Fold this sequence. Notes:
The chain has helices at about 5-25, 40-55, 65-70, 75-85, 145-150, and strands spanning about 35, 40, 100, 110-115, 130, 140, 150-155. It is of the alpha+beta class. The strands form two sheets. The chain has a five-stranded antiparallel β-sheet. Strands 1-2 form a two-stranded antiparallel ribbon. Helix 1 packs across helix 2 (about 40-55). Residues about 1-5 have low confidence and may be disordered.
Amino acid sequence: MTDDRCLREEPMRLRVLASARDWIGTPYRHQASLKGVGCDCLGLIRGIWREIHGREPETPPPYRPDWAERSGEDRLWDAATRVMGAPIDLGAMRPGDLLLFRWRLGMPAKHAGILSRDEAPPASGGARFIHAYEQASVVESALVPAWRRRIAGVFRFPEVF
């Protein structure tokens, strides 16, 4: 990546992070996407998108909590690649990037969050991410090995859509 591209991406990262942090404390509500009222992990990402880009590029159909297990389709992954483009290398992830998670190898991606802090500097306490935690709220969590090994893909928010 050129230095010029890095400079262009930085304002987008800052906007994504500021928006994600504003959602912290929003209660978990399946299929919701309203800051301060309720959201699930997809609703969090949709809300951040609306704050940055305005209108959403797609509206997801209604879905059950067990949608991935029932359909077997990788809908979250497919939507991310349609809207955000190809995934980036895990080693290149930076704060502001979208993380998709799979609970088990070979299963569809089923959870999403925003990387809020990377590994550096070492004294920082390690990587963290913001996500809607079921039965709780939007929180910032440590990206511990149990979460990290479940990362299915990393995506960058586009500058324009």
